[in-house]
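Consider a typical record:
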Amino acid sequence: MIASIHVVIVEDDPLLRDSLACYLKLVGFPTTAVGDCLSFYSELAVHRFDVAVVDLGLPDQAGEVLVDYLRRNTDCLIIVITARDTLDSRIECYRVGADLFFGKPVEGRELVAAITSLVARHATPHATPVALPQPAAAGLPTEAPAPKAVIPAAWTFALRQRILTSPTAKRIALTAKEAHLLALLTASPAGTVARHKLLEALYQRQDESANRALDSLVRRTRHTIEAATGSPAPILTEHSVGYLFTACVVVED
């Protein structure tokens, strides 16, 4: 199950680190996020991780050294992310033991797909992905059952009433601006809404003041949802791109 796959992110950029960690947690991966190698080694002393997402440009040690340490001392699967997306960097990372390599920026949905695929291919007993069949009883071969479709519980957004209802039936009253933001995000459930489009739709300009206002609006909307539900709001920041409503939602006029 996804919940058995523990991921650690080692990334010194707080915006990217928090964005990726938030997305992984929203889809169900237990996730630990740290900003340097020292913090990672401290976590590794007390926790077992199935997948490590490692930035190369860390402040206290080269990411390649951490990758080499992980490969030599753990059975952790390793995904490298870096702004140094060159052939030499990729070759060096694969040489010291990386399983996958991503140039920045990294989108949460692609990272989730990569983690799921990587774990499925290695199929360790500690990290079994959702779609893998269970072992045959008593070691006898058996035909793998088709994976069952999982239909996530849906949120409901009553647009005119400005009421967002969680899958657990928590009704959340929104301000006009919060409702406008959610209307824009839920109108594009399959993908991220670019920041510049939100700025134009909400403020009709893209200056510094409008950017600050958008950031404040997103924080306020998240807080409103989290205060009502006690759970993380399903509004994800796609680093350097825009925002995404990550949950299944039914919009009512």
